[in-house]
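can u pls check wat happens w/ xanthosine-5'-monophosphate
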Amino acid sequence: MVHPGSIVILDFGSQYTHLIGNRIRRLGAYSEILPPETPAEDLKDAAAIILSGGPQSVYDAGSPQADKKILELGKPVLGLCYGLHWMTQTLGGEVKPGHVKEYGRTKITIVDGDTLLQDCGDSCTVWMSHGDEAVKLPEGFKLIATSDTCKNTAFADETRKFFALQFHPEVMHSEHGIDMLKRFVDVSKAAPWSVESFAKKIGDDITKEVGEKNVFMLVSGGVDSTVAFTLLNQVLGADRVVGLLVDTGLMRKDEVTLIKQAFDVLGIKNLHVEDASEEFLSNLKGVTEPEKKRQIIGDTFLAVQKRVSESMQLENGKWMLGQGTIYPDTIETGGTKHADKIKTHHNRVDAIQKMIDQGLVIEPLKELYKDEVRILGEELGLPHDLVWRHPFPGPGLGVRILCADKPDTIETPKLDISHPSAILPIRSVGVQGDNRTYRHALVLFSKEKEGDIDAMIPLATSIPNQSRDINRVLVCLSHADPFEFSFTPLSITRERADLLRDADNLVDRIMRSENLYQSIWQFPVVLLPAGSTPGGQTIVLRPVESTDAMTAGMGTIPASVLAAMTKGLLAIPGIDTVLLDMTTKPPGTIEWE
Ligand code: XMP
């Protein structure tokens, strides 16, 4: 059953489903993501329904379908992209492949601004990502916006409060997208919602779920587990909560000391630190496959937790396991279903899933998005700097130390570029169209250093569109002249972890001293098993700007700062190349695996 008065998003498989969910909440209504086939009966308490986009064609056999009765509930419905196609077909209109396979920014002209588009003026630019289009509107609908490439870009039945948009108002590239969603929230008359008001419900849920038990919690030092641990301490009291910080050997420089100090300041003393770095590193020895690395890290976490909790004599049936899992980690949207074959979240490995099924896991933040966790953290009195730290992945540096036992390369595809270039001999994760991909990265070389990077961004954006084999584009900061990358078979070792720790620490210190830390969302520093000389390794700088990690662009760092970072990084023995990742998400993900 849904929360009364919430806006339900039926997920047809779009990569942007969580983005819609988060935007709706920022607009003050609670959003929930449910599978497309959810029976209409279950949606009776919802205020309105949004039908997400999705990669398939609605006229194909086996394409995802919603319960037709949702259109008879008398609730406002907003169909986006595939959601528009499904609404059109179900209500008697017609959908066909478009003449142009539209992808990216498109100018639309407003024909009738009535309800949804009244803040858009005469025209605006929006983000389109689907080739199909409605060629005949269902009865009762009128056209509200059009574009050169897709006549029926947006249409509405104001009487039934049904709205259909061919584009994605939820992505930041859509001008006035947020205004359109706000108009829909207003029409839906959803129950008002805020993190602050939700915190009380979360507290009540914790008390109910935990009952007489106590909670044992793995704390990583990341924002999510820090907030969850603090919340559990405040709701249940320190004598019913024990925290365990496992030093995985894959943490940032001085991370453990810093976390301990931060909790000390808050008066939270029930945190036990276990140095398990040897165990993690020996389990990861020789392992190169990204998914296997994630699995091992997750399983080792569990083994250590089990061993330590046994030694702490917690295993007497009175304890639950606490986790800092947040909403996007728990709701597997259609768009990430496929991705999960490439990337399993460490909070959802089999052993933990089994415990969840037995009701032995408490995840107090499981309904919140990251920005909401931060707001809650400040509400709980955690220091601003701690709460607003850049996100750091659970598997830590493990997903930033790239490993391979043999080079994996392709011929440079035919591209319309004037810069010399090279293909990296390893692949990385990306997201192209509505699917996750595991493809190659192209490195561009340039003689002009200062100011040239800005000029390269449009080029970096165009290259993955020119060749589907490329999902990332980088510029070489350390070398002006092109070279072939020299590959070294490497897995995770303590030496490599230390090397990356030093590199990451140098970048972090420069960002803080230059007052740039808060200006960007996240700054992964990645170590590659290839360099400009035999045995040399590469550091990739990946500064990103984002609001929720679901879409991202390159974060702007002044050329002089990049130069200082490059100089410092090249002085670290073992590193001979520095690259800057210019890729947006999509087509690249934030992390490299
Ligand atoms: P991607 O790479 O998918 O990352 O663009 C989106 C956000 O998620 C973080 N991330 C992870 N966090 N466990 C985590 O706890 C993971 O396995 C993981 N992988 C990615 C990433 O740092 C970014 O903030």
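The chain has 16 helices and 26 strands.
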